Amino acid sequence: MNKKNILIVGGTGFIGYHLAKKAIQKKLIVTSISTKPAKKIRYLKKVKYIICDISDKKKLTKVIKKKYDYVVNLGGYVDHANKKKTLNSHYIGCKNLADIFIKKTPKFFLQIGSCVEYGFNESPQNENMVTNIKSIKSTYGEAKLSATRYLIDLYKKKKFPASILRLYLAYGPRQDQNRLIPITIMACLKNRIFDCSTGDQIRDFIHIDDVIRAIFKLIKSKKSIGQIFNIGSGKPVKVKSVIEQIRKISKGGFPQYGKIKLRKDEIKKLYPDIKKIKKEINLSPKISFNKGITSTIKYYKDSFLI
User: Fold this and answer.
1) What is the chain's pLDDT, residue by residue, as a tens digit (306 residues)?
2) Do 234 and 260 touch, CB atoms closer than 8 A?
3) How is domain 5-168+206-231 classified at the CATH fold level?
């Protein structure tokens, strides 16, 4: 029996690494496309790594030589301050991939979207909400929503087997230290004084293992094609309570609340309605925040010998 192939665009990133690792465990042949080589902490021997910018269609066409059973697009420029690169990687890059794979159609093309695609729609946000693209204040949000619309249109016109998974805040081991949870963990483990906002924002944090379970459930489900799904824990929390829980488990850290001002366009409450993915894909998050954050803190403590 032939092994199935999976192409992970952005396979060197935080989610990409965990997806590739699980795919290897499931005996899939794994290929990654990214703009940079994998960092040491996210390198996997059994992955074939290809370096290519997905916004360059000519080069991308050359490196995608074979047909894949599954394609998961996690690609995109991380620094959203560069508007041109953000648009090119998150929208043009997705469009290029879809245009190439319309000729080498996979069984499933999963686009990892974002909660910012809902703009200022009130939480809990659900998949039926309509967003006026002009109301979205970030280039990243515009690019992600444009990619979603392009794929849904391609499904309607040509039955392209695409689905969109709108992700809220994923966390877990091996995440770069430029996100709220890793920043807080490292500061608390080192017993530092650190600046933060008032922490009044309400967010939904989902453990990486639950994200990966959702991805595999979706790509194996034909009835999810042509649809948009939210994925989050379904249990929104105040940012301040997250920081305090990390402090308690880490036994250290001195957060200076209110030192970092909220952006003018920052949404105070941002969390999903996850009824659709529960009902249609029979998927519910399994990892509680306490369990997930405890294991994540242990990873950073062990890895950095604190």
Assistant:
1) 579 999 999 999 999 999 999 999 999 999 999 999 999 999 999 999 999 999 999 999 999 989 999 999 999 987 777 889 999 999 999 999 999 999 999 999 999 999 999 999 999 999 999 998 888 888 999 999 999 999 999 999 999 999 999 999 999 999 998 899 999 999 999 999 999 999 999 999 999 999 999 999 999 998 999 999 999 999 999 999 999 999 999 999 999 999 999 887 788 999 999 999 999 999 999 999 999 999 999 999 999 865
2) no
3) Rossmann fold (3.40.50)
Query: String of b and e for 32-50 (b: at least 16 CB within 10 Å)?
Result: bbbbeebeeebebeebebb
Rounded to 5 degrees, φ, ψ at 288 are -70, 155
Cα–Cα distance, 5 to 199 (Å, whole number): 43
DSSP conformational letter for 205 = E
Give me the architecture of the 174-204+236-265+287-303 domain, per CATH.
Answer: Alpha-Beta Complex (3.90)
- In terms of Cβ atoms closer than 10 Å to its own Cβ (0-12, 13-18, 19+), residue 269 is middle
Q: Global pTM?
A: 0.96
Report whether the peptide linkage leading into residue 37 is cis, meaning its omega lies within 30 degrees of zero: no
Radius of gyration of the chain (CA): 19
Domain layout of the chain by residue ranges? 5-168+206-231, 174-204+236-265+287-303
